[in-house]
Structures are given as structure tokens and as C-alpha cells.
Amino acid sequence: MRWLFLFAALTAPLSAQLAAPNDSGVSMGHVHLMVADPDAQKKVWVDVLGAEVTHTGTLEMLKLPGIFIVVGKSRTPPADGSEGSTVNHVGFLVKSYADMKAKLTAAKLELATDNANTKQLMVNFPEKVKVEFTEDATLKVPITLHHIHNSTTDPEKLRAWYVKTFGAKAGTRGTYLAAMIPGGEVDFRKAQQAEAPTKGRSLDHIGFEVKNLEAFCQKLQADGITLDMAYRDVPTIGLKIAFLTDPDGTRIELTEGLAGH
User: Fold this and answer.
1) In 10 A of CB 112, how many CB atoms?
2) Are 50 and 142 in contact (CB under 8 A)?
3) Maximum distance among all alpha carbons in the chain?
4) Residue 27 near residue 185 (C-beta atoms within 8 A)
5) What is the pTM of this model?
6) Are 248 and 194 in contact (CB under 8 A)?
7) Which residue range forms the structural domain that includes residue 72?
8) Is residue 176 a part of any domain in this protein?
């Protein structure tokens, strides 16, 4: 029986759950893509990145350590990709730069940038979803979420909003200001002009998982934040949800119920 326990302990991180929440009850949750061809998008996340297909109720999700990717079919073609919107890209750490590059190349994905010195790749997924990969040879898993990269004309002001709203910790990553949230971070790059809102783009919104979401939404409203969609329980997908938009136009879904999947 001992070997069974050891095997479970070694393999558990490959399907790791979301990170434990911070003192405000918040952790990284999901990234939601709305695209014309969901099958082509899902094929990359599953076949190349090794995402696990799972479900909560009727909602299909692609599970990676620290994050879920949800891929929906857009009723109309997306306005454009993630670049040019307030969420420029999503960044992952990978155990091997060389292995990831080989997989991406074999899948015939466009490498927008390839820096062998820093062991970092910027890749255009189908429908211009921009994804970054950086090697961290110390990882215990092949891949894990690292950051969501926002573009804003005022990084300091937007970081302060994430810190206040979600209980994030103010930090930095290199030259970028960052809001640290369990499971990853939201980074802020300086934009010369206001970027397009995410709604209607191929990367439509990001999501945070929240413990006791109803009370959290009540606190947001008491603090003067307007919800785009009020708190509601959606039994068909086994989640409680709400929506809001950050000051620059990033659409954010709040969920309760992803943790444990």
C-alpha cells in the first residue's frame, strides 16, 4: 500500500487544484476564450500543453495546474485577438523551454518571439490568442500558470485597484508592477494609449475563484463597485457567478465552485 500512496503523491500535482485563497477569499480561477472554432483551440491546449478535459455540470473546462481554460463558441467572429486589448497575453512557466518549443513547432504554431538566452517563447495560438512560455527547470510539473499580462496607461493606479478589490499583494516582476494573487499574478505593462476592452475579443475575460462569493459581491457593491452581472447561482454548471469590469476594460468573472475540480 505504501507504493500506492507514494505514486498518488507524485502524480497529484499534474492535476493540481486551484491555489488556496488569500485573506480576501480570492485565488486565480480561469481564462475564458470566445472563438469561432473552439475545437481548433481546444486541440492546442490539450494536445500540446497537456490540459485535462473536465466538467462542472454542463460546462466543459480544460484543466492545467493553477488555472482552468474555458473555450466557448462566439456567436459572431471575435473582434480581434488578445494583443491590442487590455489583456495582452497569458503567461506560463514550463519545465523545459526546448521541449515546449518542439511541441509548439510540431503543431505549426507561430512563434512570435523566441529568446533562447532567456528561454522564453511568445506564441500566437489560433485566433490570435497570445501565450507566453518561460522555462523554470525547478518546476515539479511540466507547466503551470504564472501571470496574466495587462496593458494600461497607468500601471500603478490599476495595480492599486486589484490590490484593494481582490486583496492582492503589491509586487513586481522585473520592470513590471504586479498584483500577486494565489496561483499567479496580474502584471501591468505601460501602454502608450488606452487598449480595447476584452469583451468580444478572442480572450473575452479572466476569472477569479472566490470563497463565499455572495458576501464578497455585497462588499464590492458597498465599496461602490458596480457589477455587470449580479451574483447568481447557476445549478446547471454547478457554479455561483458574477461579473465586473476593471477600470481599463478587462472583463472579470467571479466564480465559486471551481475549487476542488
Assistant:
1) 14
2) yes
3) 60
4) no
5) 0.93
6) yes
7) 25-256
8) yes
Domains of the chain: total: 1
Q: Which amino acid is at 35?
A: V
H/E run at residue 165: helix 155-166
How far CA 207 is from CA of 22, 67, 97, 137, 250, in Å, comes to: 15, 9, 27, 28, 10
- H or E stretch at 100: helix 97-106
Q: Identify the helix (H) or strand (E) that includes residue 112.
A: strand 110-115
Is residue 66 within 8 Å of 184, Cβ to Cβ? yes
Whether residue 261 is contained in a domain is answered as no
**Sequence-separated (6 or more) residues with CB below 8 Å from residue 145:** 28, 64, 65, 66, 67, 90, 91, 92, 93, 183, 184
CATH number of 117's domain = 3.10.180.10
Q: Which residues pair with 148 in a beta bridge?
A: 90, 186
Q: Does 7 reside within a domain? A: no
- Enumerate residues 6+ apart whose C-beta is below 8 A from 207: 29, 30, 31, 32, 68, 70, 252, 253, 254, 255
Distance between CA atoms of residues 116 and 58, nearest Å: 42
Please write the tens of the pLDDT for every residue from 91-114.
999 999 999 999 999 999 999 999
| pLDDT tens per residue, range 154-206 | 999 999 999 999 999 999 999 999 999 999 999 999 999 999 999 999 999 99
Instruction: Decide: 195 and 241 in contact? Cβ < 8 Å.
Output: no
Alpha-carbon span 186 to 248, nearest angstrom: 14
Evaluate whether residue 11 is within a structural domain.
no
